[in-house]
Structure formats: C-alpha cells, structure tokens
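Subject: Predicted fold for TonB-dependent receptor, 811 residues

User T.R. writes:
Posting the sequence so we have a shared reference for the thread.
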Amino acid sequence: MQQQPALSSLALAITLALTSQQLIAQETAPEPTAAEQTDAAADAAPSGLGFERILVTGAVSRNQTVMQSSVSVSTLTFEDIDASAPRSTAEVFRMLPGVRSEASGGEGNANIAVRGLPVAAGGAKFLTLQEDGLPVIQFGDIAFGNADIFVRADATLARLEVIRGGSASTLASNSPGGVINFISKTGLDNGGSVALTTGLNYDQFRTDFEYGGDINNDMRFHIGGFVRQGEGVRDPGYQGERGYQLKANLTKDFDSGYVRLYAKHLNDRVTSYMPMPMYADGSSVPGYDAKKDTLQSAYLTQTVRLNGDNQISRGDIRDGMNPEVNSFGIEAQFDLDDNWTLDNRFRISEVSGNFITLFPAEVDSAQSIANSIAGSGATVRYAVGPQAGDLYGNGNAMRIHTFDVELHDFGSIVNDLKLSRRFGEVDVSFGYYLADQSISMSWLWNSYLMALKGDNAELLNVFAANGTAFSEQGQLAYGVPFWGNCCQRNYDTDYSIKAPYASASWAFGDWSLEASVRRDIGSASGSYAGAVQSSRDMNGDGVISIIEQSVSGIDLANPQLVNYGWAYNSYSVGANYQFNNDWAMFGRVSKGGRANADRLLFGKVNADGSVAREDAIDQVKQYELGSKSRHGNLNLFATLFFAETDEQNFEATTQRFFDRVYQAKGIELESSYRIGDLDLRGSITWTDAEISKDALNPELVGNTPRRQADVIYNLLARYTLDQAQFGVSLIGTSAAYAQDNNDLKFGAYTQINAFASYELARDLTVSLNINNLFDKVGLTEAEQGSVPANGIITARTINGRTASVGLRYQF
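User M.O. replies:
I've generated the structure tokens; pasting them so everyone works from the same file.
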C-alpha cells in the first residue's frame, strides 16, 4: 500500500504540534481552546433536539449550530442509547430518524439503509460508519466484512452524531446517504464508571468500564472498554460470545489547539444469525422456535476444508464473527495566524479475523433431499448423538452451507488533512483525504445435512438404496455442489482513494449558504481466484470416498487480474433561512458517489483487470427541503426528500448481479417534547420507493424495492421520579415485500422495549432492561420472494423477549 502521502501529513501535524509546544509552553493552565469549547458544547446534554448544539461531524463552520445549518443531523447520547435497551451495536441505529437498521443478524452484519436508498445485497452501501471522524472501513458492504462487524458501542462512547441525506456526499468518500460517527470520550470530565450486566433469561455476562480526566494542567486521558462471555441472546449450544475491547486516548492541550493520540484493540467472537426456517407469517415450524433458536449446534463446531493455499485446514464455527482490530491514530487541531485553522486526522489499522456461520441452502423433507443426492430409495440416518446409526424417519431436514470466510487483511491507512479560514462572515475549508484499504479473504465453504431442529440439531447421513454412503459424519461435500460449487474464492486486492475537497459557508443576516465539492479518485489492484475441483484424501485414511472425489479448492493456477481506476465528482449546495430564534427552513441539492469494490469480482471485471465506468461507480442525486422549529417544549425537525440512485451490486447468497436505478421520495419527522419529568423523543419516516430502471430484469420496473417499508418509526419515552427513571422505547415498521418481485409480504410490527433504573446509593444505580417486551415476531428479510410448496421460508426475525439486569457505579 502507498503510505507516504498519509505519513507526510502525519509528520506535518506532529511538527506543528512540537513547534507550537516549544513556542507557547507555559507553567500556568491555558485558557480553553476553540477546539475544546466545541467538544465541550457537543458533549453537553442537549435540550430537545439540540438545535443550539455546535456541529462537529462534517461541519463547514466550527461555530455553526444545527439551527443555522442546512444539514439534517441528529445525536444520540450514551444515556439515550442505554435507555433504548439495545442488544447489539446495530440495534442502537434503530433509534435514528430515517435509518432502517435490520438488526436481526447478531452483533454485526446488519443491513443499514437511510431515506429509501436501497440495500440490494446487504451491508451499509451508501452509509459510512466512522469512529472519531474517520471511516471504520472504506466500503460499508464488503461481503462478509460489513463495517459494523468491526465497531462496538461501549462505555467509552460519548455520543453518536449522525448526518443524513445529501450533505454527507462531500463529507466523506463513499457516503452519499449519510455518516454515523461514533465519538469517544476524551477525559473532559474527571471520573469514570464500572457497569456489570447479566442476562436474566439468556446467558451473558458483560463488564463495561471507563475512566478519564486530567493528568496535569494541559493533558488529559481516557481509557475504557468491555469484556463479555456467554451463549448470547440465542443459545448456539456452546459459548457463542467471548471477547473484549480496549480503547484509550491521550490529549495534549496548547493555547492554540491540541494533539490527541488514540488506540483501540478489539478481539470479539459473536454468533452470526442467518435466515432460519419458519412459515411465511413468521410462525415457527415444529421443533424450531424462530424467536430464540439458532442453526448452530454443539454437533457441528469444526469444519475441515482446503484453505486459500489449497492446504487442508480446520475452521472453528464457534468463532462466528471474530473481528481482530488493532488501530492507532493521531488527531491534531490548531488555530493559526490570520484566522487559519489546521485539522489533521490519521489512523493506521490492522484488521483481520473470521466470519463463519451456518446457512440453510435448502429446507425440505429429509427424504426429498436424500433422493436428490443419492437417488430414489435413499435412506437417512442420524450421524451423531445418542441415536447415531438409527433411521431419521419422516422429518424435515436442512441442507447447510458453511459460510466459512477467513478475513486475512482488512487493514487500512487513512489521513484527512483540512485547512480552514474565516474571511469576515465567510468560512472556507480545503482538504485532502487519502486512504488505502486492503481486502484479502478466502471463502472456504462446505455442505452438511442437518435435522430441522433448533436445540442442538443432529447431523444426518445419506445412503443410497444399495447402502453406499453419500456423506460422512453429516458432511455432504467439500464445497457447495447445490450451488454449482460457486463459492470457493480467494481475494487479494488493494484499493486506494485520493479525494481533494473544498467547502464554504456564508452567513449574512438571517441567511446561511453552504456549498461543497469533492473529487474522488481511486484505483484497485491485485488478483482473485475462483473454485477448481479435484479429488483429495481429506481425512487421510488412504481411501478416496464419494465426497472426496470432487473437492473444492482455489484455482491458484489461473488468478484473475484486478487493475482499474475510477473518478467521480460530488457536490452539495444548501441554504438556511432563520425566521426567528425558534424557526428556520433549509433546502439542499446534492450529488454523491460510491465506488464499488469486491462485489464487482467474479463477473464485472474484464480479463485485463479493467471495469466499465458504469459498474465501478454508483451515484445518488438528492433534493431536500426542511424545517426546524421550537414550540415551547416541543421541538420539530421535518424534511421532505427525494433521491435517485444508480446501483451495481452482487449478492453472495443468490449469486445474482444487480444493475438498477431506484427512486425514493418521502418525509422524515423528528421530534422531542418535555412535560415536567416526562421526556419524549421520536421520529417517523414515510418513504415511497420504486425500481425505476432494471437492465437485467425489466419486469421488476415499478416494483417496490425489497424490505422497503412505507413507514418506519421510533419513540423513546422517559420519566424521572426522584431516584428512579423508567420508560419505554418503540421501534416499528409497516409491511414490506421480502423480494423485488413483490409477492411475499412481511407484516407490520411494533417492538416495545422497557427499562427502569433506581439509585440505590449515591452514584450506584441498578437497572432492568427488557428487549421486545411482548415477544413479538418481526420479519426483516427472507431469501424467498414467494412461498415455496412446503410453506417453509428461510428468514430472519427480531430476537424474542430478553431481559437483563445491570449495576453501575460512577466515580
């Protein structure tokens, strides 16, 4: 990877910091800098929707408030997040206006969309997740490497700051839909906390801790993280969660700015929940509870396969989603002479791990599946467990594919340098963004036959009518022949991004005008290879069995070249008019882009490594008109929006490419209201979306995109009484189609969560959280677009009711 430009910017920031320290070091405590004042204002608990809060994430002007800007921005504090009773980072996003977070897959791998922008193949394609102002991963929808896998919300989080809509187009690369920024505590307040949480009806124990404060007059620090273990909210038959995170930062303040060092180490293992067998109305099939069971089983924890170098290796299914992240960063901000300000953020990250889970490729009667494998008259017997060798009978079974992916290198180097100046009432900024992102992984999939059962399902063996075994210990194949042995793959690719950008804001009277442009220039290099079949003695017994006659490996002799570039321009222009202190209106026109990465491989890359421009880049045009107003204790943020989105994509589970244009229009309402000790906050978004063009499937034109509900909404209600606080949060959605053919439709649902806390003693609080209080079924996605003949679909639903109790001490 090309590291010199990023490191040069880092050297510049360090040199400025050291020079400033030599020139202005003083024995007495310095006055708070503009940067510290901005941080302090952002960290302060906002009243209502925080219209007077100074913008931090992507701000054009450092002194601009939400009321003065033409940006759709929201903030969730740590207290807001805690009260909504999330069980994963993805569930935190459910409380954000306009954001559809399908948080049914576990701690990561969520599908996240904003304001009708599509989720054609999973992940968060048009939305960027950031930590302290820099992207977690440069592409939010890497297959089996979604950005939310590599970030965790814990006690070190000060708040989430969220930019929605077109203004995000020029704030960060590949983020035309929005930016969700995880902002860490930096020791502005002396003290810390320790919190212990345990599940009441599920097995999990977690400890969150954090501490920070002043080291001396001009230095402060913060350190914290979490550690957890247990089965998780669904019991996989073993310890499905075990891991920890450590984060730390150190800030040195100067009269004219600050330098901050920060580091993060994440090593977490959590179960990934794939679509599960259930009936189309969400009700459970016999033997499998869709709200609490998993496909995982104590009988299938290890899988033997050929690795990316075609060597026999072993995968541990208990690893689940296993991100391993080591990152180090430097952030510097200085006020220079003549009203100039220098900002620089740098981060280097080592990222690797595993993604391994079970996927039901086929659900049918065991006899039907066996006949398709071994011919008419095949028999099925238990392969493991106390009934090993016995006939299985007439029950249903699942053909399981192991989504077994080794994440070799997802590391990155990122640097964002910005120089700003105020000219009277005009603020201008010039910046240069550099990033190198590696995507190196191996797909190593196998096939098994498993009983349709949710509590440690047994593996099954298939025998032909003459007694010949067509499986071994429940394993049907080394590979996935049911999908044409598509999915043994190896990537070794690197992506480089260079993006100069500029912005300006002009305040005159009650008007505020904002404009920004960005030029993204990227290149991709490397190679990839697909599957090749060969015979191999995988178990070392000296005999080539039936399933060893065709083993999937990597075609290392015929790697395919990746060698292409892309470039696109983004712009955003907005205006805000403030009628009085309590009412302002704004409008914005934007165009943003998103470069495609690994999902172009195996179909969109030419023999010489090139890619057509229309495949390399997806673009989004957006129009917004909004109002911000205060009416006593009522705050209201209303936005009309329209978006047109081009998209190229590829979905791993269906092996389908997409080449479409989508249109979406709607209205987003966010509001807060306070009556005495009762605090209400919520949002509702209505969206009318359709597929307006489809080059590959024109019969879908006019249909509603899959999983796009007309209405999504949330509400958080809190009541404070002396030493106690209690309340509820609601997350709901109207009906939505499972797939783009608009046949199978999911029903509407409302999930209600409850919380209560009581101060046992000063700074010692006990709390109770109940997620999905009324144990509702809520379908979020399905593999099928129509109900199959047996009535069983494979789908994800929100988790059933879970309750936890916590004890938190602040000091």
